[in-house]
Amino acid sequence: MCGITGFIGAGQALPFLMQGLAKLEYRGYDSAGITLVDEHGLYTCKTKGRLSELEALLRDVRCPQNCGIGHTRWATHGVPSQLNSHPHSNMKNTISLVHNGIIENYAVLKQELLAKGYQFTSETDTEIVVHLLDEHYYRDRLPMFEALLKTVHQLQGSFALCIVCTDEPDRIYVAKKESPMVLGRCESGTMCASDAPALLEYTKEILPLNDGEAAILKADSLEVYDFEGNPVPENWISFPYDVQSAQKGGYDSFMMKEIHEQPSVIRETLRGRFRGEMIYMQEIDRLHLDERDIRRIYYVACGTAYHACIYAVTQLSRYARCAVNAMPASEFRYGSPYLDEHTLCVFVSQSGETADTIAALKLAKSHHAVTTAVVNVLGSSMTRLADAVLYTCAGPEISVASTKAYTTQLVLLACLNVELADVMDWEMPGRREMIRDLQILPEAVEEVMGYESTMEQLSKLLKDQRDAYFIGRQLDYPSALEGALKLKEVSYVHADAYYAGELKHGPIALIEKDSVVVAMATQPEVAAKTVSNIEETIARGAQVILITTKDMPAEKFEHVLRLPNLCPDLAPITGAVLLQMFAYFTAELKGCDIDKPRNLAKSVTVE
Ligand code: M6R
Hints:
With 607 residues, the protein is an alpha/beta fold. The protein is 33% helix and 24% strand. α8 runs antiparallel to α15 (441-448), α9 (303-316) runs antiparallel to α17 and α15 (441-448) runs parallel beside α19. The chain is globular and about 80 Å long. Residues 302-305, 349-351, 354, 357, 400-402, 489, 600, 603-604 line the site of 5-amino-5-deoxy-1-O-phosphono-D-mannitol.
Protein backbone atom coordinates (compact mmCIF):
# COMPACT_ATOMS: atom_id res chain seq x y z
CA MET A 1 0.00 0.00 0.00
CA CYS A 2 1.28 3.47 -0.89
CA GLY A 3 -0.19 6.96 -1.08
CA ILE A 4 -0.24 9.07 -4.23
CA THR A 5 -1.03 12.74 -4.82
CA GLY A 6 -1.09 14.92 -7.96
CA PHE A 7 -1.94 18.58 -8.59
CA ILE A 8 -2.15 20.90 -11.59
CA GLY A 9 -3.54 24.40 -11.10
CA ALA A 10 -3.08 28.13 -10.96
CA GLY A 11 -1.07 28.20 -7.73
CA GLN A 12 1.85 26.17 -6.40
CA ALA A 13 1.47 22.39 -6.52
CA LEU A 14 3.71 21.60 -3.54
CA PRO A 15 1.35 22.63 -0.70
CA PHE A 16 -1.38 20.34 -2.02
CA LEU A 17 1.03 17.46 -2.57
CA MET A 18 2.48 17.67 0.94
CA GLN A 19 -0.80 18.08 2.85
CA GLY A 20 -2.22 15.21 0.79
CA LEU A 21 0.72 12.93 1.57
CA ALA A 22 0.33 13.75 5.26
CA LYS A 23 -3.28 12.54 5.07
CA LEU A 24 -2.16 9.38 3.29
CA GLU A 25 0.71 8.45 5.58
CA TYR A 26 -1.52 5.73 7.07
CA ARG A 27 -1.05 3.97 3.69
CA GLY A 28 2.72 3.80 4.07
CA TYR A 29 5.54 5.72 5.66
CA ASP A 30 8.91 4.17 4.85
CA SER A 31 9.87 6.78 2.23
CA ALA A 32 8.40 9.80 0.48
CA GLY A 33 9.03 11.91 -2.61
CA ILE A 34 7.70 14.50 -5.05
CA THR A 35 8.33 15.58 -8.63
CA LEU A 36 7.45 19.10 -9.78
CA VAL A 37 7.44 20.01 -13.45
CA ASP A 38 7.53 23.22 -15.50
CA GLU A 39 9.03 24.43 -18.76
CA HIS A 40 12.52 24.17 -17.20
CA GLY A 41 12.21 20.43 -16.54
CA LEU A 42 11.59 18.02 -13.68
CA TYR A 43 12.53 18.67 -10.07
CA THR A 44 12.49 15.49 -7.99
CA CYS A 45 13.16 15.23 -4.27
CA LYS A 46 12.79 11.93 -2.42
CA THR A 47 14.09 10.25 0.67
CA LYS A 48 13.92 7.18 2.83
CA GLY A 49 11.95 7.77 6.03
CA ARG A 50 8.79 9.56 6.99
CA LEU A 51 7.27 12.59 5.34
CA SER A 52 8.92 14.90 7.89
CA GLU A 53 12.28 14.00 6.35
CA LEU A 54 11.07 15.07 2.92
CA GLU A 55 9.70 18.29 4.44
CA ALA A 56 13.11 18.99 5.95
CA LEU A 57 14.80 18.53 2.56
CA LEU A 58 12.33 20.90 0.88
CA ARG A 59 12.34 23.56 3.59
CA ASP A 60 14.71 25.97 1.83
CA VAL A 61 13.89 25.05 -1.75
CA ARG A 62 11.91 27.49 -3.93
CA CYS A 63 9.11 25.52 -5.59
CA PRO A 64 6.95 27.80 -7.77
CA GLN A 65 5.80 24.99 -10.12
CA ASN A 66 2.07 24.49 -10.42
CA CYS A 67 2.15 20.88 -11.56
CA GLY A 68 3.47 17.91 -9.58
CA ILE A 69 3.04 14.41 -8.18
CA GLY A 70 3.83 12.96 -4.74
CA HIS A 71 4.21 9.59 -3.08
CA THR A 72 4.45 8.05 0.36
CA ARG A 73 5.71 4.49 0.20
CA TRP A 74 5.15 1.19 1.94
CA ALA A 75 7.73 -1.00 0.28
CA THR A 76 6.76 -4.17 -1.57
CA HIS A 77 9.64 -4.57 -4.06
CA GLY A 78 13.01 -3.29 -2.93
CA VAL A 79 13.85 -2.23 0.61
CA PRO A 80 13.08 1.30 1.79
CA SER A 81 15.88 3.48 0.38
CA GLN A 82 16.37 6.75 -1.46
CA LEU A 83 16.81 4.95 -4.80
CA ASN A 84 13.72 2.79 -4.36
CA SER A 85 11.59 5.78 -3.31
CA HIS A 86 9.13 7.21 -5.81
CA PRO A 87 8.83 9.17 -8.10
CA HIS A 88 10.81 7.25 -10.71
CA SER A 89 12.05 8.95 -13.87
CA ASN A 90 13.20 7.83 -17.31
CA MET A 91 16.88 8.00 -18.25
CA LYS A 92 16.47 11.39 -19.97
CA ASN A 93 14.77 12.71 -16.84
CA THR A 94 11.79 13.98 -18.83
CA ILE A 95 9.03 11.63 -17.59
CA SER A 96 8.34 10.97 -13.92
CA LEU A 97 5.76 8.79 -12.24
CA VAL A 98 4.43 7.48 -8.94
CA HIS A 99 2.79 4.07 -8.52
CA ASN A 100 0.68 2.27 -5.95
CA GLY A 101 0.21 -1.47 -6.47
CA ILE A 102 2.24 -4.45 -7.61
CA ILE A 103 3.32 -5.15 -11.20
CA GLU A 104 3.30 -8.95 -11.28
CA ASN A 105 5.09 -9.37 -14.61
CA TYR A 106 7.78 -6.79 -13.92
CA ALA A 107 10.63 -9.33 -14.03
CA VAL A 108 9.83 -10.38 -17.60
CA LEU A 109 9.31 -6.79 -18.74
CA LYS A 110 12.55 -5.74 -17.07
CA GLN A 111 14.53 -8.32 -19.01
CA GLU A 112 13.01 -7.08 -22.27
CA LEU A 113 13.77 -3.46 -21.39
CA LEU A 114 17.35 -4.30 -20.36
CA ALA A 115 17.83 -6.00 -23.74
CA LYS A 116 16.66 -2.77 -25.39
CA GLY A 117 19.28 -0.75 -23.52
CA TYR A 118 17.23 0.68 -20.64
CA GLN A 119 19.15 1.06 -17.39
CA PHE A 120 17.58 0.64 -13.97
CA THR A 121 18.53 2.51 -10.84
CA SER A 122 16.10 0.89 -8.38
CA GLU A 123 14.95 -2.59 -7.32
CA THR A 124 11.30 -1.66 -7.69
CA ASP A 125 8.65 -3.16 -9.92
CA THR A 126 7.58 0.44 -10.72
CA GLU A 127 10.64 1.52 -12.68
CA ILE A 128 9.70 -0.67 -15.65
CA VAL A 129 6.58 1.47 -16.14
CA VAL A 130 8.49 4.68 -16.72
CA HIS A 131 10.81 2.95 -19.21
CA LEU A 132 7.82 1.47 -21.07
CA LEU A 133 6.33 4.97 -21.31
CA ASP A 134 9.67 6.27 -22.58
CA GLU A 135 9.77 3.52 -25.21
CA HIS A 136 6.29 4.25 -26.54
CA TYR A 137 6.63 8.04 -26.34
CA TYR A 138 10.11 8.50 -27.79
CA ARG A 139 10.82 5.34 -29.79
CA ASP A 140 7.26 4.62 -31.05
CA ARG A 141 6.50 8.37 -31.21
CA LEU A 142 3.04 7.98 -29.70
CA PRO A 143 1.38 10.93 -27.95
CA MET A 144 1.81 10.54 -24.18
CA PHE A 145 -1.77 9.47 -23.52
CA GLU A 146 -1.54 6.75 -26.18
CA ALA A 147 1.83 5.72 -24.76
CA LEU A 148 0.12 5.32 -21.39
CA LEU A 149 -2.73 3.23 -22.84
CA LYS A 150 -0.24 1.00 -24.64
CA THR A 151 1.75 0.63 -21.41
CA VAL A 152 -1.20 -0.30 -19.19
CA HIS A 153 -2.11 -3.11 -21.59
CA GLN A 154 1.35 -4.60 -21.00
CA LEU A 155 1.04 -4.60 -17.20
CA GLN A 156 -0.27 -7.47 -15.09
CA GLY A 157 -1.16 -6.84 -11.47
CA SER A 158 -2.47 -3.77 -9.72
CA PHE A 159 -1.62 -0.14 -10.31
CA ALA A 160 -2.62 3.43 -9.72
CA LEU A 161 -0.28 5.66 -11.70
CA CYS A 162 0.30 9.43 -11.89
CA ILE A 163 2.62 10.70 -14.60
CA VAL A 164 4.13 14.06 -15.52
CA CYS A 165 6.26 14.91 -18.56
CA THR A 166 8.43 17.93 -19.40
CA ASP A 167 6.91 18.25 -22.91
CA GLU A 168 3.48 18.80 -21.33
CA PRO A 169 3.99 20.55 -17.99
CA ASP A 170 0.34 21.58 -18.05
CA ARG A 171 -1.14 18.15 -17.43
CA ILE A 172 -1.01 14.97 -15.35
CA TYR A 173 -1.84 11.54 -16.73
CA VAL A 174 -3.50 9.01 -14.46
CA ALA A 175 -4.44 5.32 -14.78
CA LYS A 176 -6.05 2.84 -12.38
CA LYS A 177 -6.46 -0.91 -12.04
CA GLU A 178 -7.17 -2.57 -8.67
CA SER A 179 -5.48 0.20 -6.65
CA PRO A 180 -7.50 3.21 -5.53
CA MET A 181 -7.48 6.61 -7.21
CA VAL A 182 -9.83 9.55 -6.72
CA LEU A 183 -9.97 12.82 -8.67
CA GLY A 184 -11.20 16.25 -7.62
CA ARG A 185 -11.30 19.84 -8.82
CA CYS A 186 -11.78 23.22 -7.23
CA GLU A 187 -11.11 26.86 -8.13
CA SER A 188 -7.39 26.57 -7.58
CA GLY A 189 -6.86 23.46 -9.70
CA THR A 190 -7.41 19.79 -10.46
CA MET A 191 -6.05 17.04 -8.27
CA CYS A 192 -5.86 13.31 -7.67
CA ALA A 193 -4.93 11.03 -4.78
CA SER A 194 -5.10 7.46 -3.53
CA ASP A 195 -7.82 8.33 -1.07
CA ALA A 196 -10.31 11.11 -0.45
CA PRO A 197 -8.77 12.53 2.78
CA ALA A 198 -5.98 14.03 0.64
CA LEU A 199 -8.57 16.09 -1.27
CA LEU A 200 -11.00 17.11 1.43
CA GLU A 201 -9.34 20.40 2.40
CA TYR A 202 -9.78 21.48 -1.22
CA THR A 203 -13.05 19.88 -2.27
CA LYS A 204 -15.72 17.48 -1.09
CA GLU A 205 -16.79 16.67 -4.66
CA ILE A 206 -14.89 13.49 -5.55
CA LEU A 207 -14.70 11.38 -8.69
CA PRO A 208 -13.48 7.84 -7.86
CA LEU A 209 -11.86 6.26 -10.92
CA ASN A 210 -12.99 2.74 -11.79
CA ASP A 211 -10.70 -0.12 -12.71
CA GLY A 212 -9.62 0.15 -16.32
CA GLU A 213 -9.93 3.94 -16.45
CA ALA A 214 -7.38 6.62 -17.27
CA ALA A 215 -7.61 10.39 -17.00
CA ILE A 216 -5.96 13.57 -18.22
CA LEU A 217 -5.87 16.32 -15.58
CA LYS A 218 -5.45 19.96 -16.64
CA ALA A 219 -5.60 23.13 -14.49
CA ASP A 220 -9.25 23.80 -15.25
CA SER A 221 -10.62 20.48 -16.54
CA LEU A 222 -10.29 16.74 -16.51
CA GLU A 223 -11.17 14.01 -18.99
CA VAL A 224 -11.77 10.32 -18.19
CA TYR A 225 -11.36 7.45 -20.67
CA ASP A 226 -11.35 3.68 -20.60
CA PHE A 227 -8.15 1.80 -21.46
CA GLU A 228 -9.29 1.66 -25.11
CA GLY A 229 -9.35 5.45 -25.22
CA ASN A 230 -13.15 5.87 -25.22
CA PRO A 231 -14.58 8.68 -23.06
CA VAL A 232 -16.51 7.38 -20.04
CA PRO A 233 -19.24 9.10 -18.00
CA GLU A 234 -18.12 10.78 -14.77
CA ASN A 235 -19.93 9.77 -11.58
CA TRP A 236 -19.08 12.48 -9.04
CA ILE A 237 -19.97 11.94 -5.41
CA SER A 238 -20.23 14.35 -2.54
CA PHE A 239 -17.96 13.08 0.22
CA PRO A 240 -19.71 12.94 3.61
CA TYR A 241 -16.75 12.63 6.03
CA ASP A 242 -14.36 15.07 7.65
CA VAL A 243 -10.64 14.52 7.10
CA GLN A 244 -9.99 12.54 10.27
CA SER A 245 -12.76 10.01 9.85
CA ALA A 246 -11.98 9.77 6.14
CA GLN A 247 -8.43 8.59 7.01
CA LYS A 248 -10.09 5.72 8.80
CA GLY A 249 -12.18 5.12 5.69
CA GLY A 250 -15.27 6.35 7.52
CA TYR A 251 -14.80 3.75 10.29
CA ASP A 252 -14.55 4.79 13.93
CA SER A 253 -11.14 3.19 14.37
CA PHE A 254 -8.23 1.77 12.44
CA MET A 255 -9.01 -1.66 13.94
CA MET A 256 -12.43 -1.78 12.25
CA LYS A 257 -10.99 -0.38 9.03
CA GLU A 258 -8.28 -3.05 9.06
CA ILE A 259 -10.83 -5.79 9.78
CA HIS A 260 -12.66 -4.67 6.65
CA GLU A 261 -9.47 -4.57 4.57
CA GLN A 262 -9.02 -8.33 4.97
CA PRO A 263 -10.64 -9.48 1.72
CA SER A 264 -8.37 -7.19 -0.30
CA VAL A 265 -5.12 -7.82 1.61
CA ILE A 266 -5.70 -11.58 1.47
CA ARG A 267 -6.14 -11.18 -2.27
CA GLU A 268 -2.85 -9.23 -2.43
CA THR A 269 -1.05 -11.86 -0.33
CA LEU A 270 -2.20 -14.60 -2.70
CA ARG A 271 -1.48 -12.61 -5.85
CA GLY A 272 0.75 -14.57 -8.20
CA ARG A 273 0.88 -17.62 -5.87
CA PHE A 274 -1.11 -20.03 -8.07
CA ARG A 275 0.28 -21.97 -11.02
CA GLY A 276 -2.51 -24.40 -11.92
CA GLU A 277 -2.61 -26.88 -9.06
CA MET A 278 0.69 -25.74 -7.62
CA ILE A 279 1.57 -23.01 -5.14
CA TYR A 280 4.29 -20.75 -6.54
CA MET A 281 6.81 -19.82 -3.86
CA GLN A 282 10.07 -19.17 -5.57
CA GLU A 283 11.38 -17.35 -2.46
CA ILE A 284 12.08 -20.66 -0.76
CA ASP A 285 13.59 -22.43 -3.79
CA ARG A 286 16.94 -20.99 -2.75
CA LEU A 287 16.81 -23.05 0.47
CA HIS A 288 17.05 -26.34 -1.50
CA LEU A 289 15.01 -28.04 1.20
CA ASP A 290 14.68 -31.22 -0.84
CA GLU A 291 18.46 -31.75 -0.64
CA ARG A 292 18.86 -30.96 3.05
CA ASP A 293 17.30 -33.93 4.84
CA ILE A 294 15.10 -31.74 7.04
CA ARG A 295 14.39 -33.62 10.30
CA ARG A 296 12.48 -31.02 12.35
CA ILE A 297 10.58 -27.79 11.74
CA TYR A 298 9.95 -25.01 14.27
CA TYR A 299 7.44 -22.20 13.83
CA VAL A 300 8.41 -19.37 16.18
CA ALA A 301 6.80 -16.00 16.99
CA CYS A 302 5.13 -13.88 19.68
CA GLY A 303 1.53 -13.01 20.50
CA THR A 304 -0.88 -13.17 17.62
CA ALA A 305 1.87 -14.29 15.24
CA TYR A 306 2.54 -17.22 17.61
CA HIS A 307 -1.10 -18.26 17.25
CA ALA A 308 -0.53 -18.28 13.49
CA CYS A 309 2.38 -20.65 14.19
CA ILE A 310 0.14 -23.00 16.19
CA TYR A 311 -2.26 -23.02 13.25
CA ALA A 312 0.59 -23.88 10.86
CA VAL A 313 1.91 -26.66 13.08
CA THR A 314 -1.51 -28.20 13.73
CA GLN A 315 -2.02 -28.33 9.99
CA LEU A 316 1.44 -29.55 9.02
CA SER A 317 1.79 -32.18 11.74
CA ARG A 318 -1.06 -34.14 10.12
CA TYR A 319 1.15 -35.10 7.20
CA ALA A 320 4.75 -34.02 7.87
CA ARG A 321 7.19 -36.89 8.08
CA CYS A 322 9.40 -35.05 10.55
CA ALA A 323 8.98 -33.40 13.97
CA VAL A 324 7.02 -30.13 13.85
CA ASN A 325 6.73 -27.65 16.74
CA ALA A 326 5.40 -24.17 17.47
CA MET A 327 7.13 -22.14 20.17
CA PRO A 328 6.82 -18.62 21.54
CA ALA A 329 10.04 -16.84 20.67
CA SER A 330 10.59 -15.81 24.29
CA GLU A 331 10.73 -19.51 25.26
CA PHE A 332 12.54 -20.75 22.19
CA ARG A 333 15.49 -18.43 22.76
CA TYR A 334 16.10 -19.76 26.30
CA GLY A 335 14.86 -23.32 25.94
CA SER A 336 17.83 -25.00 24.21
CA PRO A 337 15.80 -26.17 21.20
CA TYR A 338 17.56 -28.83 19.11
CA LEU A 339 19.00 -26.89 16.17
CA ASP A 340 21.31 -27.98 13.39
CA GLU A 341 21.59 -27.84 9.60
CA HIS A 342 18.71 -30.35 9.34
CA THR A 343 16.35 -27.97 11.16
CA LEU A 344 14.02 -25.54 9.37
CA CYS A 345 12.86 -22.56 11.47
CA VAL A 346 10.02 -20.33 10.32
CA PHE A 347 9.80 -16.97 12.14
CA VAL A 348 6.51 -15.11 11.86
CA SER A 349 6.12 -11.40 12.57
CA GLN A 350 4.03 -8.47 11.43
CA SER A 351 6.68 -5.87 12.21
CA GLY A 352 9.81 -7.94 11.62
CA GLU A 353 11.25 -6.07 14.64
CA THR A 354 10.02 -8.01 17.69
CA ALA A 355 13.02 -8.40 19.99
CA ASP A 356 12.33 -11.97 21.15
CA THR A 357 11.69 -13.21 17.62
CA ILE A 358 14.87 -11.56 16.33
CA ALA A 359 16.86 -13.18 19.16
CA ALA A 360 15.30 -16.57 18.33
CA LEU A 361 16.19 -16.11 14.67
CA LYS A 362 19.79 -15.25 15.53
CA LEU A 363 19.99 -18.31 17.78
CA ALA A 364 18.76 -20.56 14.96
CA LYS A 365 21.28 -19.08 12.55
CA SER A 366 24.14 -19.52 15.00
CA HIS A 367 23.35 -23.27 14.99
CA HIS A 368 23.24 -23.40 11.16
CA ALA A 369 19.49 -24.02 10.99
CA VAL A 370 17.72 -23.02 7.76
CA THR A 371 15.67 -19.89 8.45
CA THR A 372 12.62 -18.37 6.81
CA ALA A 373 10.81 -15.20 7.88
CA VAL A 374 7.11 -14.57 7.26
CA VAL A 375 6.93 -10.81 7.68
CA ASN A 376 4.73 -7.85 6.77
CA VAL A 377 7.22 -4.97 6.86
CA LEU A 378 9.60 -5.00 3.95
CA GLY A 379 13.23 -4.40 4.79
CA SER A 380 12.65 -4.93 8.54
CA SER A 381 15.36 -6.57 10.67
CA MET A 382 14.09 -10.15 10.29
CA THR A 383 14.01 -9.87 6.51
CA ARG A 384 17.70 -9.03 6.56
CA LEU A 385 18.60 -11.93 8.84
CA ALA A 386 16.60 -14.84 7.44
CA ASP A 387 17.78 -17.08 4.59
CA ALA A 388 14.44 -16.63 2.82
CA VAL A 389 11.58 -14.16 3.26
CA LEU A 390 7.88 -14.47 2.51
CA TYR A 391 5.84 -11.27 2.70
CA THR A 392 2.27 -10.98 3.88
CA CYS A 393 0.89 -8.09 1.87
CA ALA A 394 -1.30 -6.63 4.61
CA GLY A 395 -0.12 -3.04 4.18
CA PRO A 396 0.57 -0.88 7.23
CA GLU A 397 -1.27 -2.10 10.31
CA ILE A 398 -1.90 0.93 12.52
CA SER A 399 -4.15 -0.55 15.20
CA VAL A 400 -2.13 -2.18 18.00
CA ALA A 401 -4.45 -5.19 17.87
CA SER A 402 -3.33 -7.29 14.96
CA THR A 403 -6.16 -8.31 12.60
CA LYS A 404 -5.28 -8.25 8.91
CA ALA A 405 -1.66 -9.21 9.65
CA TYR A 406 -2.92 -12.36 11.42
CA THR A 407 -5.22 -13.57 8.66
CA THR A 408 -2.61 -12.90 5.98
CA GLN A 409 -0.12 -14.88 8.10
CA LEU A 410 -2.55 -17.82 8.18
CA VAL A 411 -2.98 -17.57 4.41
CA LEU A 412 0.74 -17.49 3.70
CA LEU A 413 1.53 -20.26 6.20
CA ALA A 414 -1.15 -22.45 4.62
CA CYS A 415 0.53 -21.85 1.24
CA LEU A 416 3.96 -22.54 2.75
CA ASN A 417 2.69 -25.84 4.19
CA VAL A 418 1.47 -26.92 0.74
CA GLU A 419 4.83 -25.97 -0.69
CA LEU A 420 6.67 -27.92 2.01
CA ALA A 421 4.55 -30.98 1.28
CA ASP A 422 5.45 -30.71 -2.40
CA VAL A 423 9.15 -30.08 -1.87
CA MET A 424 9.52 -32.84 0.74
CA ASP A 425 7.31 -35.22 -1.20
CA TRP A 426 4.81 -35.67 1.64
CA GLU A 427 1.30 -36.69 0.77
CA MET A 428 -1.03 -33.93 1.95
CA PRO A 429 -4.68 -34.88 2.45
CA GLY A 430 -7.06 -32.21 1.10
CA ARG A 431 -4.32 -30.50 -0.92
CA ARG A 432 -6.44 -30.02 -4.05
CA GLU A 433 -9.42 -28.58 -2.08
CA MET A 434 -7.12 -26.23 -0.21
CA ILE A 435 -5.66 -24.77 -3.42
CA ARG A 436 -9.13 -24.51 -4.95
CA ASP A 437 -10.60 -22.75 -1.91
CA LEU A 438 -7.66 -20.42 -1.32
CA GLN A 439 -8.65 -18.86 -4.64
CA ILE A 440 -12.15 -18.00 -3.40
CA LEU A 441 -11.06 -17.09 0.11
CA PRO A 442 -11.26 -13.27 -0.35
CA GLU A 443 -14.94 -13.60 -1.34
CA ALA A 444 -15.60 -15.91 1.63
CA VAL A 445 -14.01 -13.37 3.99
CA GLU A 446 -16.18 -10.69 2.38
CA GLU A 447 -19.23 -12.87 3.10
CA VAL A 448 -18.49 -13.11 6.84
CA MET A 449 -18.34 -9.30 7.04
CA GLY A 450 -22.13 -9.64 6.75
CA TYR A 451 -22.16 -10.84 10.40
CA GLU A 452 -21.04 -7.45 11.67
CA SER A 453 -24.33 -6.40 13.24
CA THR A 454 -24.82 -9.90 14.71
CA MET A 455 -21.42 -9.66 16.39
CA GLU A 456 -22.33 -6.23 17.70
CA GLN A 457 -25.48 -7.71 19.28
CA LEU A 458 -23.61 -10.70 20.69
CA SER A 459 -20.96 -8.52 22.31
CA LYS A 460 -23.74 -7.32 24.64
CA LEU A 461 -23.61 -10.75 26.31
CA LEU A 462 -20.35 -9.56 27.86
CA LYS A 463 -21.77 -6.28 29.11
CA ASP A 464 -21.76 -7.32 32.76
CA GLN A 465 -19.22 -10.14 32.55
CA ARG A 466 -15.63 -10.09 33.73
CA ASP A 467 -14.60 -13.30 31.96
CA ALA A 468 -15.06 -15.16 28.72
CA TYR A 469 -14.03 -18.66 27.62
CA PHE A 470 -12.98 -19.69 24.13
CA ILE A 471 -12.83 -23.35 23.19
CA GLY A 472 -11.94 -25.42 20.14
CA ARG A 473 -10.20 -28.58 19.01
CA GLN A 474 -7.49 -29.13 16.40
CA LEU A 475 -7.35 -26.14 14.03
CA ASP A 476 -10.06 -24.44 16.08
CA TYR A 477 -7.72 -24.23 19.06
CA PRO A 478 -5.43 -21.49 17.69
CA SER A 479 -8.62 -19.62 16.78
CA ALA A 480 -9.75 -19.90 20.41
CA LEU A 481 -6.38 -18.58 21.59
CA GLU A 482 -6.50 -15.68 19.18
CA GLY A 483 -10.14 -14.84 20.00
CA ALA A 484 -9.27 -14.73 23.70
CA LEU A 485 -6.15 -12.61 23.14
CA LYS A 486 -8.03 -10.12 20.97
CA LEU A 487 -10.79 -9.75 23.56
CA LYS A 488 -8.34 -9.24 26.46
CA GLU A 489 -6.21 -6.83 24.49
CA VAL A 490 -8.87 -4.36 23.36
CA SER A 491 -11.74 -4.74 25.87
CA TYR A 492 -9.82 -5.75 29.03
CA VAL A 493 -12.32 -8.57 29.61
CA HIS A 494 -10.41 -11.50 31.06
CA ALA A 495 -10.50 -14.34 28.55
CA ASP A 496 -9.01 -17.83 28.45
CA ALA A 497 -8.78 -20.39 25.69
CA TYR A 498 -8.93 -24.15 26.18
CA TYR A 499 -8.91 -27.25 24.09
CA ALA A 500 -12.62 -28.10 24.20
CA GLY A 501 -11.81 -31.60 25.48
CA GLU A 502 -9.84 -30.14 28.39
CA LEU A 503 -12.81 -28.21 29.74
CA LYS A 504 -14.00 -31.07 31.91
CA HIS A 505 -10.54 -31.49 33.45
CA GLY A 506 -10.77 -28.26 35.44
CA PRO A 507 -11.94 -25.08 33.72
CA ILE A 508 -15.59 -26.15 33.78
CA ALA A 509 -15.50 -25.37 37.51
CA LEU A 510 -15.51 -21.70 36.49
CA ILE A 511 -18.70 -21.92 34.44
CA GLU A 512 -21.76 -20.48 36.13
CA LYS A 513 -25.01 -18.79 35.12
CA ASP A 514 -24.44 -16.33 32.22
CA SER A 515 -20.74 -17.18 31.73
CA VAL A 516 -19.91 -16.47 28.09
CA VAL A 517 -18.42 -19.36 26.11
CA VAL A 518 -17.34 -18.91 22.49
CA ALA A 519 -17.03 -22.31 20.83
CA MET A 520 -15.32 -22.86 17.50
CA ALA A 521 -16.54 -26.07 15.81
CA THR A 522 -15.40 -25.95 12.20
CA GLN A 523 -13.32 -29.11 11.89
CA PRO A 524 -15.51 -31.98 10.66
CA GLU A 525 -13.75 -34.81 12.50
CA VAL A 526 -14.11 -33.14 15.94
CA ALA A 527 -16.89 -30.54 15.59
CA ALA A 528 -19.57 -32.83 17.05
CA LYS A 529 -17.36 -33.43 20.09
CA THR A 530 -16.97 -29.69 20.67
CA VAL A 531 -20.74 -29.35 20.40
CA SER A 532 -21.10 -31.98 23.18
CA ASN A 533 -18.69 -29.94 25.27
CA ILE A 534 -20.80 -26.83 24.92
CA GLU A 535 -23.87 -28.76 26.05
CA GLU A 536 -21.98 -29.38 29.29
CA THR A 537 -21.50 -25.63 29.74
CA ILE A 538 -25.11 -24.81 28.82
CA ALA A 539 -26.26 -27.26 31.49
CA ARG A 540 -24.40 -25.03 33.97
CA GLY A 541 -26.07 -21.83 32.73
CA ALA A 542 -23.49 -20.60 30.18
CA GLN A 543 -24.42 -18.39 27.25
CA VAL A 544 -22.76 -19.98 24.25
CA ILE A 545 -21.80 -18.49 20.90
CA LEU A 546 -21.19 -21.30 18.44
CA ILE A 547 -19.14 -20.62 15.31
CA THR A 548 -19.47 -23.55 12.96
CA THR A 549 -19.98 -24.62 9.36
CA LYS A 550 -23.12 -24.54 7.24
CA ASP A 551 -23.88 -28.26 7.57
CA MET A 552 -23.36 -28.77 11.33
CA PRO A 553 -26.67 -29.66 13.07
CA ALA A 554 -26.98 -26.93 15.73
CA GLU A 555 -30.59 -25.78 15.58
CA LYS A 556 -31.08 -26.10 19.31
CA PHE A 557 -28.48 -23.47 20.14
CA GLU A 558 -29.47 -19.83 20.42
CA HIS A 559 -26.42 -18.06 18.98
CA VAL A 560 -25.05 -19.91 15.96
CA LEU A 561 -22.87 -18.32 13.27
CA ARG A 562 -22.21 -20.33 10.17
CA LEU A 563 -19.06 -19.83 8.13
CA PRO A 564 -19.00 -20.11 4.31
CA ASN A 565 -18.36 -23.56 2.87
CA LEU A 566 -14.61 -23.86 2.43
CA CYS A 567 -12.15 -26.65 3.06
CA PRO A 568 -11.84 -26.96 6.88
CA ASP A 569 -8.22 -25.79 6.94
CA LEU A 570 -9.36 -22.33 5.86
CA ALA A 571 -12.19 -21.96 8.39
CA PRO A 572 -9.84 -20.39 11.00
CA ILE A 573 -9.33 -17.51 8.57
CA THR A 574 -13.01 -16.68 8.09
CA GLY A 575 -13.65 -17.48 11.78
CA ALA A 576 -10.95 -15.02 12.88
CA VAL A 577 -12.91 -12.15 11.37
CA LEU A 578 -15.89 -12.90 13.65
CA LEU A 579 -13.69 -13.11 16.73
CA GLN A 580 -12.05 -9.79 15.84
CA MET A 581 -15.48 -8.15 15.52
CA PHE A 582 -16.59 -9.66 18.82
CA ALA A 583 -13.56 -8.14 20.58
CA TYR A 584 -14.03 -4.85 18.78
CA PHE A 585 -17.68 -4.39 19.71
CA THR A 586 -17.08 -5.47 23.31
CA ALA A 587 -14.34 -2.84 23.58
CA GLU A 588 -16.63 -0.25 22.04
CA LEU A 589 -19.37 -1.13 24.51
CA LYS A 590 -16.95 -0.70 27.38
CA GLY A 591 -15.69 2.64 26.03
CA CYS A 592 -12.08 1.47 25.53
CA ASP A 593 -9.44 3.22 23.41
CA ILE A 594 -9.59 0.53 20.75
CA ASP A 595 -6.61 1.44 18.55
CA LYS A 596 -4.29 2.08 21.49
CA PRO A 597 -5.02 -0.38 24.30
CA ARG A 598 -3.41 0.40 27.64
CA ASN A 599 0.10 -0.91 28.37
CA LEU A 600 0.65 -2.10 24.79
CA ALA A 601 2.86 -0.94 21.91
CA LYS A 602 2.51 -1.87 18.26
CA SER A 603 6.01 -3.20 18.04
CA VAL A 604 7.74 -4.80 21.04
CA THR A 605 11.39 -4.10 20.35
CA VAL A 606 12.60 -4.77 23.89
CA GLU A 607 12.80 -8.10 25.66
O1 M6R B 1 5.20 -7.60 15.03
P1 M6R B 1 4.99 -9.00 15.56
O2 M6R B 1 4.00 -9.78 14.76
O3 M6R B 1 6.27 -9.75 15.76
O4 M6R B 1 4.35 -8.78 17.00
C1 M6R B 1 4.10 -9.86 17.84
C2 M6R B 1 3.14 -9.50 18.94
O5 M6R B 1 3.67 -8.48 19.74
C3 M6R B 1 1.78 -9.04 18.39
O6 M6R B 1 1.20 -10.04 17.59
C4 M6R B 1 0.79 -8.72 19.53
O7 M6R B 1 0.47 -9.88 20.23
C5 M6R B 1 -0.44 -8.02 18.96
N1 M6R B 1 -0.67 -6.79 19.64
C6 M6R B 1 -1.68 -8.83 19.06
O8 M6R B 1 -2.80 -8.17 18.57
